[in-house]
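Entry 14. Ran structure prediction on the chain below.
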Amino acid sequence: MKHLKRLLAIVMTVVLLGSLAACGGGSSSSDSAEGEKGEKEKLTVAFQYGMAYAPLQVMQEQKLIEKHYENVEVEWATLNSGSAINEGFASGSIDVGAMGLGPAITGVTSGVPYKIFANMSAQPHRIMTNKANIKSLKDIKKEKIALVNIGSFQHILLAMAAKEQLGDAHALDNNIVAMAHPDGMAALIAGSVDCQLTTSPYVFKEEKEDGISEVEALESVWPSGNSFIVGVASTELKEKNPELYDAVVAAMEDAIKYLNENKEEAAEMLCGNEDVDAATMLQWLNDESCVYTTEAKGIMDFANFMAENGFLENDGPKALSDLAFDNVKGN
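Output, structure tokens:
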């Protein structure tokens, strides 16, 4: 436990001190002043790859922020981790972003200057294994489990399941091998790790592989439809340019409505990112665990678990309003 707390403290120190010069400057009061002179205000939006981030891809493709706020130039940055996005917020170079719920909660409670402005998506999460004898967490002894990072959303899910099934949230911490989702999938198929806790589309790809099966562990601790990826916006944006903030919120609502009402078109838009055909992407989008909604679900349960099991250095949030702006609905 103490080792984990020290590691998380080091990670967040790096986050708070880091910078992301490559992303350029975000919006600020000086940008707003320039906008009054006829130049467009600048807004930097950062996200990651994958189906969970589809609403932001729709927002970019259809210029939905610009639809709701004409005097803005939006710069889109695709980064490889939530920690990189946190660095951008800490340095003031990112205004809007998206990340897993765990890193977002850690960021807010550690003083990164943002809050959640919308839920984005829930996605299927499963523990997949190449060992026929592993049916539950109790069967895992020294076997290695690939997941994206210590303190990630997937790490918290594993801890939730370990607490329920093994009596100790940190019982499997020493089994973790940090790997990006695609690297973990390759390692699982090759046999260099024994298990992977991952999400879409990797779970869809892995279930078609011979010798790969699911370890029943997660549904009871994190039901389908609960929040996974959330959108975050800087407190400066909300306070100094509320009209542009409202435009971002409206654009997210439009993007999610589009995804839910135009799945065939959305599949055509998104399939190239995952190197599959549109029919396959449509099948994935129609999976009942693939949910796009702005309404939060389970955020406080997740935050309370993190606080109670040593994943937060500071006190946990007392209410959703500690983590999210007042327009966010849910729990």
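Residues 203 and 272 are 18 Å apart (CA to CA). Will compare against last week's run tomorrow.
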